Amino acid sequence: MKLLVTLLASVVLAASALPARAADDSKVKLGAGKIGEGVEETAKGIGNTVVEGAKYSGDKLKESGKAAEPKAKSAWESVRDGTVDFGHSVKNFFTNLFGG
Q1: Burial group, residue 6, by CB count within 10 angstroms (0-12, 13-18, 19+)
Q2: DSSP 79
């Protein structure tokens, strides 16, 4: 769910950063450009939040991937498992051969 929210926020932020068509402001001049001074800081804050959310999501995905990996066996465990399997095969062979 967090990943979906992060992706949605990223899309909204990316869409808002696309260049827009220039408006004809020759008829209307508002406040000598002082409207929305905090918009830039707000956008930077949102961008930082999205970046940190993506980092967090990436870390969690890495952790879940590592948790799903099988445990590495030592050389001794591999030899022991092979020997046990071989023993079972020999037992089954003779059991089947002599009708057990």
Answers
A1: buried
A2: H
| pTM of the model as a whole | 0.32
Closest C-alpha among 61, 40, 43 to residue 51: 43
Closest by alpha carbon to 47, among 6, 4, 1, 2? 6
Contact present, 10 and 54 (Cβ < 8 Å): yes
Confidence of residue 27 (pLDDT cuts 50, 70, 90): low
Half-sphere exposure of 64 (CA within 13 A, CB side): 6
| Helix ranges (DSSP H) in the chain | 2-17, 39-68, 75-97
| Alpha-carbon distances, residue 36 vs 12, 13, 20, 39 (angstroms) | 19, 17, 17, 5
